[in-house]
Amino acid sequence: MELIDKYKPDAISIEELFFNTNTTTAIGVAQGRGAVLIAASKTETPIYEYTPLQVKQSVVGYGRADKKQVQSMVKAILKMDKMPKLDDTTDAMALAICHAHSSKFAETIK
Question: What is the DSSP string of 63-92?
Fold first, then answer.
């Protein structure tokens, strides 16, 4: 909530939960996602949810793009000299790009 109060985002975009077999990772992701949803709700910040397919389609133009393709397009779209070191950072940037491309069509999940 401190970060939301400090940066005052117009919206928060999150990725729909998707996991195959790694339940340990899924539990951690679900907990983090829950914290974001609660913080956004308490600060009345609109929440938008996108599937991995929607993010890849928006950023790369192909919903089955691999992680390297997404990273390359994030770098190009944002005119970055180099990629962030953490994949999670790139994923967050891709979600923001997806929301920017989709926001006039998106509906909040609140």
Answer: TT--HHHHHHHHHHHTT-SS--S-HHHHHH
58-74 tens-digit pLDDT? 999 999 999 999 999 99
CB 14 within 8 A of CB 92: no
* Residue 105, helix vs strand vs coil: coil
Both tokens assigned to 101: 């491309």
- The C-alpha atoms of residue 28 and residue 51 are separated, in whole angstroms, by 18
The topology (CATH level 3) of 2-102 is Nucleotidyltransferase; domain 5 (3.30.420)
Q: What is the pTM of this model?
A: 0.83
Each domain of the chain, given as residue ranges in start order, spans 2-102
